[in-house]
Description:
The chain is about 30% helix and about 25% strand. The chain is globular, with a radius of gyration of 17 Å. The relative contact order is 0.12. It is of the alpha/beta class. The strands form two sheets. It has a seven-stranded mixed beta sheet with strand order 2-1-3-4-5-6-7, sandwiched between helices. A two-stranded antiparallel sheet has the order 8-9.
Amino acid sequence: GDAADVWLCPMPFCHVGGLSVPLRAAVHGFAVMLLRRFDAGAVHRALRTRRVTLMSVVPTMLVRLLDAAGDAPVPSALRCALVGGGACAADLIARARAHGLPAVPTYGMTEAASQICTADADDVAAAPGSVGRPLGGLDLRVRDPDAAGWGTLAVRGPQITSGYFRDAAATA
């Protein structure tokens, strides 16, 4: 985001996806519109009456928003809706984009202070189901892959936590 943005945050602060929005705003200087709790009608009202340019939701919220939208168009000011916090099916992203909601899947974790990867429109078109490429400064590697390529994802970068508070075993 930048100073011209308004980021709608209907997520709780106990989730890194919600907490990261006002933290980003403090760094980048954009406005944040907080909702006390998620309500599809309140989100749609905010999108219609405020100049919301960015939004963060989890997949279940996106489903509820689309179900509640009916034929109402998405305001043109909204340029990106980050969808994270859980696996997001490619058909859900396609459904949102077909409705005019510029949804992009993300992958992150609390230990990374939120996002690790974020797809863009090209990623969504070329590789449905992808969460995109790693954000700048991050190094991702699959450790101990099996024959199919599945393994443990290792992430390294400046925003990754250096450890867990008073828990050396978890840090190791």
